[in-house]
Amino acid sequence: MLTKTMKGGTAVTQTEIVKALTAAIDQGAYKYGDRLPTTRKLAEEYGTSQQTVASALTRMANMGLVQVQRGWGARVITGKPAKIRLGTYRSANREIATGTTAWTRNTGTGAKEGPTQVSQTVTTEDDTDTGIPAGAEVVERSRTRFDADGAPVQHKRTLVTVAAATLTPEGWTGLPPMMSPGDINPPGGKSIAQWLGMGVEQITYEVSATSATGPAAAALGLPEDTPCLRIVSRGTKGDGEVAYATVTTAPLRSSVSWEIRDDGVG
Predict the structure, then answer these.
(1) Taking the domains of the chain in order of start, what are their residue ranges?
(2) Cβ atoms of 150 and 121 closer than 8 Å
């Protein structure tokens, strides 16, 4: 909940208001989509000026926590802090561990994923950081993940080259797995690339802070140019060609982790 109005007779500062409101969001007092009290009510609560409150809300908007519109107020556009676990790998120069996933979270039960959208498209200059050349025909698989409170917390977009997307495991009948909507569950703890025989020998990750745009911004309910994390993973074959690339977009205050094991294998 919100902190006390005064501290020893001194009005709270802009920074303290940001801290208090952020804590209220983290604790669930304000959930995704909720409107915050008016600047006048917050000013009364904190014993400070409406200008100080407005400045605090502007800072929170720049952090991707709220959306502020003149005459409308502030709306929460984030959920509780998210932790994105990219997977478990072996130490350098050893075999990559299987069963990796970028969707594991530890924010409690109730998280869910929206349906997978599958389409065929052509890469553009905006996709150059994926390692797949612009103008390449690819199969695009996209999905949004929501936390237990219904807040969108990750948008995942995977681009698979047509050559890799049309692969099928031995004995498979019907549409290739990567071209089919729904979950893909390889047997025996194998990665999808191993199961389909994509020839992927290396997986690399790049994590950067950027601005939410296009489908990712829309899926996450964020205004264009809201700060966010962009995680690009690439599955590269022995000849250097990228077989697939996944772009995960998440609110900026999400944390990213992965585990490296040195178990003597290799």
Answers:
(1) 6-76, 83-261
(2) no
Nearest CA to 244 out of 162, 183, 143 is that of 162
Domain 6-76 CATH class label: mainly alpha
What pLDDT score does 121 carry?
96
**Separation between Cα atoms, residue 222 and residue 213, nearest integer Å:** 9
Query: Distances in Å between the alpha carbon of 174 and those of 23, 67, 168?
Result: 50, 46, 9
User: Average pLDDT for consecutive 10-residue bins of the chain (266 residues)?
Assistant: 48 90 92 93 92 94 89 87 75 50 50 90 94 96 90 93 94 92 81 92 90 90 88 94 95 82 57
Beta-bridged to residue 220, according to DSSP, are: none
- Is the alpha carbon torsion for 147, 152, 154, 158 positive or negative? positive
CATH of domain 83-261: 3.40.1410.10
Q: Please state the separation of Cα 184 from the chain's center in Å.
A: 20
Token pair listed for 14: 């802009």
